[in-house]
Amino acid sequence: MTKMISNKIPIETVYIVDGQRTPQLKATGRPGPFSASDLSVASARDLLLRMPFTAHDIDEVVIGCVMPDASEANIARQIALRIGCDNKTPAWTVQRNCASGLQAIDSGMNSIISGKADIVLVGGTEVMSRAPVMWNNSMINWLSHWFNIRTHRFIDNIQYIRQLFNLRPSFLKPVFSLIKGLQDPLVDLSMGQTAENLAYHFDISRSDMDNYALQSHERLSYAAKHGRLDDEITPIYDTNDHYYKHDNGLRKDSSIKKLSRLKPVFDRKNGSVTAGNSAQISDGATSLFLASDKAVKKYSLNVLGKIIDSHWVGLTPEEMGLGPAYAIPPLLKKHQLTINDIDYWEINEAFAAQILACQKVLNDDNFCSNELGLKNILGLIPDDKINVDGGGISLGHPVGASGARIVLHLLHTLKNSSSENKTFRGIAALCIGGGQGGAILIESAGNH
User: Fold this and answer.
1) How far is CA 251 from the centre of its chain?
2) Active site residues per annotation
3) Which of 170, 280, 293, 302 has the fewest CB atoms within 10 Å, i.e. is most exposed?
4) How much is the pTM?
5) Where are the domains of the chain?
6) Within a 10 A sphere around the Cβ of 369, how many other Cβ atoms?
7) CATH architecture of 2-131+280-442
C-alpha cells in the first residue's frame, strides 16, 4: 500500500511492526549496572525473537544516543553486530538531544520511503548514570606535558620533579558531562532554567507544577498496577543475577505535601522548578522495527501501526520547552486535522512547567496568532488524552531513548483503547535542548 502526494509520486507506507523497551532505572548517584549498548541489545534481542525474520534480514540499524561510553563509538554498529546482524548491514547513530530516539525513527522511515531499506531496527538508548566524568583542560595540558617528558629518549628527572611541582589541586576538579550536557552554552542556561523562564513568562505556579507531578506518579502507579506497561517491557538481568522488570522511578507515596517541601533547584531564591516536578535522570532503551509494505507482505507481519508524518522546528533556546507547541500545529495543518481528531497524545515530560506551558499556549489566541500564524486558537488538549500512564517525571527521561519510548507507548495506548475501533490516531512530541521541537503523527493498526 502506498500513499500519493500532489505530483502523483507514490510514497512508501512505513509501518511500525512492534517494539520493546527495558525498564527505566533511576540513577542513584553511582554508575548503573548496564551500559547503553547492553540495554539496547536486551530490548532488541527480545523483540527480534518474536519476529518471523532473522537479524540477517535487517537492512539497516539506526539508534539514538546522546552520551555513549568512550568504548561505544557509533553505538548503533555495536548493537547491530551483537544482535547478529550481517557484517554488511549498515548501522549509524543519531543525536538530537532529547529527541534522538524520535530522530532514529524519522531516519529509518526516510530510508524505507527512499527505497533503500525494507526492514529497519530503530530506537534509542541512554545510560545517564554512566555519563563520562572528564578532566578539565588544565589537567589535560599538565598530563600532556608529563607524557611528553616520558617519551624523551633520556628521561630528565629534574623535568619530572619540576612538572610535579606544577600540579595544582584545581587541576583535579572533574568535569561532569551530564551537567555540561544539560547546559546550553550559547545562552548559558541549564534546561531547568529554561523551564523557569516558561513558568515566569506564562504564569505557571509552583502549585500547578506539583499537582501535575503528582498526577504523573498517580497515573504511572495505576498503569503499573493494572499491567498497562507489561507488554512493552522486557525483563533484564545484570551480571550479579539481579532482576529488573519494572520502572523504578515511581514514588507511590508521593503527595502534594511532600512535593511542596522540596527546594527549587535552578533558581534557589525565586524559582519553582524542583527535582519533584522535573524529569528523573535515568537509564533505559527502546527498540522498534519499521517495515515497508513489501516486507509486511513477505513475512506476513502483524503491525502495531504506521507512520503518517513527522515535523521538526527550531525556536529560541531560552524557551526550548515550547518545542512541541511549535511542532504540532504544522503537522495538524498539513493533514487537515484538529486537536479533536487526535485520540491520544504523548508529550515528553521534561518539566511540569514545560508541559503546562505547551498546553497553555496552544489554547492562547495571541500565541497562536503571533507565533504560529493561526487564524484561530488550536485548542486545549484534553487532560484525559495526554500522557495517560505518566511520563518523564514519574518514569524517567533517558534522553537518547525517550523519543522512541513515547512512540512505543502511544501505539500500545491506541491498541489497548481501540477495541471498539474508535481510537486510532496519535501524536508524540518532545522539546529539545538547544531550542528545537519534534512531533510525529501515527495511526494504529486498527485503522488499516
Assistant:
1) 21
2) 98, 431
3) 170
4) 0.92
5) 2-131+280-442
6) 13
7) 3-Layer(aba) Sandwich (3.40)
